[in-house]
Design goal:
single chain; Arc Repressor Mutant, subunit A; 3 domains; six-stranded mixed beta sheet
Length: about 350
């Protein structure tokens, strides 16, 4: 909704509403950004007087991409725009201030970013590799742990569980799955539960159309099977990475991008625009969340102390977590019953 409020520098107010709830309210300098320009915005506290309503348009899509809030409106022209939220440090004092820019789809198309992709500069990533994975990919500079994953071959750890999961397939692996196609669809269905997922294939699509490499299958049969994956699992990313090296690099960059997005947020009137990372009912994801918190646990603790520290985690998940840490040689138990203490084992 766009209103005229009569200010000198910011004569208009823009609101994004969900029924009667205000998701975002900004004071803006124009009714719509001009071609190749962007409009500077200020947050509206909501304390000012009401304005004259100029326009009200339904919102088709509202999604967050890192520091950007992308909006699609239900009309033929001037339908796509986004809001860029930046934090800048003060030059003469401590703290940060906010800058908000309103940009259109046309201005984003005409602009050209000039940058070179550099190495990952964030905190070290924690990547889990399934214990059954032979000759795994390498992730230099990351903390890599071998463990049993609920699905997939590689996973990115996060504070709330697994942030991203990747299933790896070589050319021969994927051809072998054609013989157990229904079971493979079940695996992909579980993989699809995670919002950040991917099936990464160490080969190009054209390789699966080469009759000299397909042995028992025809190119048309394999092409239909590959198309079926995308048709039956629309939320699954399918990546043909051409080679092992290319697949390894894609997975590493994918995990870096997911980690970066998980650390960025947009403050929008107290409304959480984040998507759920993983289903909350999965004990396996809660166990991985506890594994991520393990370095910050005290040298010794009891089961009851863990329950107090993580009240959202069921007791059975905590017991499975302790059993897994004990099997990995990272903790030992002294005593029995509720007073038994679990102690960390120093790793060489």
């Amino acid at each position: 909704m766009l209103e005229r409020i009569g200010g000198k520098r910011f004569p208009y107010r823009l609101k994004i509403l969900e029924e009667d709830r205000v998701l975002l309210a900004l004071k803006v300098q124009a009714v719509w950004p001009g071609a190749g320009t962007q409009v500077f915005c200020l947050r509206d506290s909501g304390q000012g007087r009401g304005g004259e309503e100029l326009e009200r348009v339904p919102v088709v899509s509202l999604r967050r991409y890192g520091k950007r809030l992308a909006v699609v409106l239900d009309r033929r022209v001037n339908k796509r725009c986004d809001f860029l939220f930046l934090k800048k440090p003060y030059k003469t004092k401590e703290g940060e201030y906010e800058q908000i820019f309103w940009r259109t789809h046309q201005s984003l198309r005409t602009s050209r970013k000039r940058f070179v992709t550099g190495p990952w500069k964030g905190p070290p990533l924690t990547i889990y590799v399934d214990i059954d994975e032979k000759y795994p990919w390498r992730f230099p500079g990351c903390r890599v742990e071998r463990t049993h994953l609920p699905v997939g071959d590689y996973a990115l750890a996060g504070g709330k569980g697994l942030l991203a999961v990747v299933e790896r397939k070589t050319f021969d692996n994927l051809l072998a799955e054609l013989g157990r196609w229904d079971a493979f669809h079940q695996v992909l269905g579980e993989l699809e539960v995670y919002p950040q997922n991917a099936l990464v294939i160490e080969s190009s699509y054209g390789d699966f159309l080469d009759p000299k490499r397909l042995h028992h299958y025809t190119p048309s049969f394999v092409a239909r099977a590959l198309a079926e994956i995308s048709a039956m699992h629309p939320r699954l990313k399918v990546v043909f990475a051409h080679s092992r090296k290319g697949a390894n690099e894609w997975c590493r960059r994918f995990f870096e991008a997911v980690a970066l997005q998980s650390t960025e947020s947009i403050p929008v009137q107290g409304v959480d625009l984040e998507e759920t990372v993983v289903p909350k009912s999965r004990d396996s994801d809660l166990i991985f969340a506890l594994m991520e918190q393990f370095p910050r646990l005290p040298p010794s603790f009891t089961l009851g102390e863990l329950r107090e520290a993580f009240p959202h985690v069921p007791i059975e998940a905590i017991r499975r977590f302790l059993g897994r840490m004990k099997a990995a040689g990272k903790v030992r138990c002294s005593g029995r019953g509720p007073k038994a203490r679990w102690m960390k084992i120093q790793q060489d």
